[in-house]
Specification:
With about 400 residues, the protein is an alpha/beta fold. The chain has 2 domains: about 220 residues, Rossmann fold, CATH 3.40.50.2000; about 160 residues, 3-Layer(aba) Sandwich (Rossmann fold), CATH 3.40.50. The chain is about 40% helix and about 20% strand. It is built from 16 helices and 16 strands. The strands form 3 sheets. The chain has an 8-stranded mixed β-sheet, sandwiched between helices. The chain has a 6-stranded parallel β-sheet with strand order 13-12-11-14-15-16, with helices on both faces. Helix 3 crosses helix 4 and helix 8 packs across helix 11. The radius of gyration is 21 Å and the shape is globular. The two termini are about 25 Å apart.
Length: about 400
């Protein structure tokens, strides 16, 4: 039986064969919506490839080798290429994305009309959705996730596009109440913005026998985990510095990024190389066991929306130590969840040491995020997109 609504999900943030964990929360949300009785979803995941001769660089080979069209874990997905100007071309990305994908969108729209566009990252996806909307007369929604609101407005030529796309959108989403406030501060209409928390698979992320999970990892003593990309604004250097004041602890980093060499060098300089492990990109199926093995999860970023790693840690019974950014206070409401600290190595060490000295009950920790679920996430997305579609009809 044909479904009532056909949604075009536009997302530059989406997993692929070379980066199966990249934007996996977007995939989970999209899959949840696609399972709803009334929604059929087509995903377009534009891939940025620079012009000649830069497109011959080896770093782009894996992206160029990805199939243009595939069934990705049950989702119908297209991966067209758009022109990417590295380092300096950020303000042009929405235009290049729209130019690259418009012929495909028109073709798909003619075969089976879309009812709305769901842009899954505020920039560049949002302004690109606005350009497609203008061409085809489709209502659109944009979701903000953190860096798209905290970083891109500071880049020349981007803030104006972000605010304009928000103004013309039929609906907006934010991953936390704090991010909604930041969007309003940029000049967006608060009445348009619905807070849309991430989901959580509690069958995967749940408390386990911590000692047994540590043995699997060959870890003795306290274990601290940091799940995040290794980039400057995530401030992993502060956690490494804090480790000097946490006796016998092992620190594991799950994630990849350009700052890895710098962080490895810092660990060596401080004589901590044997206690700091860089796991690289951890398969999402292996991640629950690692997080559940940890005594503490720590992330002291410059900015966040509401990090999935925070929710996954709490769901696993692992308390968190966070900087006061994004939706941190929406999760850490009391000491059962952990502590919010300044971005200072001594404060981080003090908070972690306190959690190690006074271990939290894992079930009580997990209760802090019991209300996060992918079913609820899909229900709210369903209701939101119905409103977006109805806005065109009214």
């Amino acid at each position: 039986m044909a479904k009532a609504y056909h949604i075009l999900t536009l997302s530059t943030l989406f997993p692929n064969a070379t980066k199966p964990n990249f934007g996996i929360f977007v995939e989970r949300q999209t899959a949840g919506l696609a399972k709803r009785d009334d929604f059929d979803v087509t995903v377009i995941n534009p891939l940025g490839i620079p012009p000649w001769p830069l497109h011959n660089l080896s770093r782009y080979n894996d992206l160029k080798a990805l199939p243009y069209h595939e069934n990705w874990r049950g989702l119908n997905i297209y991966r067209p290429h758009f022109t990417l100007i590295p380092n300096v071309g950020g303000k042009y990305n929405p235009y290049f994305i729209a130019k690259a994908i418009l012929p495909l969108v028109k073709k798909l729209h003619a075969e089976k009309p879309f009812d709305a566009i769901d842009a899954e990252f505020f920039y560049p996806d949002g302004p690109a959705a606005m350009l497609i909307s203008t061409e085809l007369g489709l209502p659109y929604s944009i979701k903000s996730r953190g860096a798209d609101i905290h970083h891109w407005p500071s880049v020349s030529g981007c803030k104006e596009q972000i605010v304009k796309a928000a103004h013309h959108a039929s609906g907006l989403l934010a991953v936390s109440e704090a991010l909604k406030r930041d969007m309003i501060a940029l000049g967006m209409d608060g009445d348009k913005i619905m807070v849309h928390y991430t989901g959580m698979d509690h069958s995967r992320f749940h408390p386990r026998d911590r000692a047994a999970e540590k043995r699997k990892l060959n870890v003795t003593g306290p274990l601290i985990i940091c799940v995040a990309a290794l980039i400057e604004r995530k401030n992993q250097h502060i956690i490494i510095e804090a480790l000097q004041h946490i006796p016998n602890a092992t620190l594991m980093f799950a994630g990849m990024g350009p700052a890895r060499a710098k962080f490895e060098s810092l660990a060596a300089q401080l004589g901590l190389s044997e206690r700091v492990q860089f796991l690289g990109a951890v398969d999402h199926d292996a991640l629950p066991n690692i997080i559940a093995a940890a005594d503490v999860s720590c992330l002291v970023s410059e900015s966040e929306g509401l990090a999935n790693a925070w929710v996954e840690s709490l769901a696993s019974g692992t308390p968190i130590v966070l900087s006061d950014v994004g939706g941190a206070r929406e999760l850490v409401k009391d000491e059962s969840a952990g502590y919010i600290v300044e971005r200072d190595s001594q404060q981080v060490a003090d908070a972690i040491n306190k959690l190690l000295a006074e271990p939290r009950d894992q079930a009580e920790v997990a209760q802090n995020v019991a209300y996060f679920s992918w079913d609820i996430n899909a229900e709210k997305m369903d209701a939101h997109l119905r409103k977006v579609i109805e806005s065109k009809l009214s």
